[in-house]
Write a structure and sequence with these properties.
Layout lengths: L6 E6 L6 H14 L6 E6 L2 H10 L5 E5 L16 H4 L5 E4 L2 H6 L4 H13 L3 E6 L3 H5 L3 H12 L5 H4 L3 E4 L15 H19 L1 H6 L1 E5 L7 H5 L6 E4 L6 H17 L1
Parallel strand pairs: 1-2, 1-8, 2-3, 3-4, 4-5, 5-6, 6-7, 7-8
Helix pairs in contact: 1-2, 1-12, 5-7, 7-9
The chain binds 2-phosphoglycolic acid (PGA).
Length: 261
C-alpha cells in the first residue's frame, strides 16, 4: 500500500440489481461507509441505474463508474451507450473486463478504441487485463498481459496516463470463471511485470504514479492480503460488492490498514 496514493476500491455489480435494488444497496452502504479522504469508493451499477444513483449518492463518499461504453461518440448504433453520453455522469468506466472480452468478443483493438474514447470524454478508464487459466497453464501469461497492456495504451500520451487506471484481473481468479484464489505472491509478480512494462513505455515516474488494482474473488477476509501486495493500489470487487456487510467491511479494512501504517 502506497500511502502517497489513495486506496481505490471499485464495486462491479455486473448485470445484477434493478434500479430499485441498486438504490437500496446504496442506501445500506451509505449508512455504513464514512467519507475517508484517502479512500475512493466507486460503484459500477448497470447502465440503467447510473442516472438515478447520481442523484442519490453523496458524491464525496461515492463515485460512479460505467461497466462499459461504446467508442464512437454518436451514430446509428442501436442499443449502445457512448462514452460521450456518459461524460459528466460517471468518473470512471470499466473497459476490457474479461466478461466483455470473452462473452462479447471484445478484441484488443476494440478495447484500445474504448480506452481512447473514455479519455477523450473525460472519463477515467479502468482497463482490465489478465490471462485465462489456459493461457497461464501454457506459460503465455506474460505475453497476454504485454499484448493487452500495450494495445490498450497505444494512443495514450504520458499526460493522459494520469487519468487511466489498470486492473490486473487474472481470469482464473474471477469468481464466475474458475474462481481459483490467487496467492499474493502470484499477484506480486504480475503487478511487478505490468509496472515494468509501464516504465518502459512511459518512464519511471509515470509508471510509479499509475494506479493498479487487483481483482478476482476479493472479499472482506482477504482484501487486506491483496492490498498489502507491493504495487497494488486498490481492488476491483465483483460478487462480494453485492453484499453490503462484506463491501463496507472491505472499506473498513482498507481504512484500518492506512491508519495503522
Ligand atoms: P469477483 O469479480 O470479485 O466476483 O471475482 C471481479 C471482477 O470480475 O471484476
Amino acid at each position: 500500500m502506497n500511502l502517497r496514493k489513495k486506496t481505490l476500491i471499485i464495486a462491479n455489480w455486473k448485470m445484477h440489481l434493478n434500479t430499485h435494488q441498486a438504490s437500496l444497496l446504496v442506501h445500506r452502504l451509505d449508512e455504513r461507509i464514512q467519507v475517508h479522504r484517502d479512500i475512493e469508493v466507486v460503484l459500477a451499477p448497470s447502465m440503467l441505474s447510473l442516472q438515478p444513483l447520481s442523484q442519490q449518492i453523496n458524491h464525496r463518499k461515492f463515485k460512479l463508474a460505467a461497466q462499459n461504453g461504446y467508442a464512437t461518440d454518436e451514430g446509428a448504433y442501436t442499443g449502445e451507450v457512448s462514452f460521450a453520453m456518459l461524460s459528466g455522469l460517471v468518473t470512471y468506466a470499466i473497459v476490457g473486463h474479461s466478461a466483455r472480452r470473452i462473452y462479447f468478443n471484445e478484441t484488443l483493438e476494440v478495447v484500445r478504441d474504448k480506452v481512447q474514447a473514455a479519455v477523450r470524454n473525460d472519463i477515467m478508464p479502468v482497463i482490465c487485463i489478465g490471462e485465462t487459466k489456459q493461457e497461464r497453464d501454457a506459460g503465455e501469461g506474460r505475453q497476454v498481459l504485454h499484448d493487452q497492456l500495450t494495445t490498450a495504451l497505444m494512443n495514450i500520451t504520458s499526460r493522459e496516463l494520469e487519468r487511466v487506471v489498470l486492473a490486473y484481473e487474472p481470469v482464473w481468479a474471477i469468481s464466475t470463471f474458475d474462481g481459483i484464489i490467487a496467492k499474493p505472491d502470484d499477484i506480486e509478480k504480475s503487478i511487478a511485470y505490468i509496472r515494468m512494462q509501464l516504465r518502459e513505455l512511459y518512464g519511471e515516474k509515470a509508471a510509479e504514479n499509475m494506479y493498479i488494482l487487483y481483482g478476482g474473488s476479493v472479499n472482506d477476509h482477504d482484501v487486506r492480503s491483496y492490498l498489502e501486495v507491493p504495487g497494488v493500489d486498490g481492488a476491483l470487487v465483483g460478487a462480494a460488492s453485492l453484499n453490503y456487510h462484506q463491501f463496507s467491511a472491505m472499506i473498513d479494512a482498507a481504512y484500518r490498514m492506512r491508519t495503522e501504517a
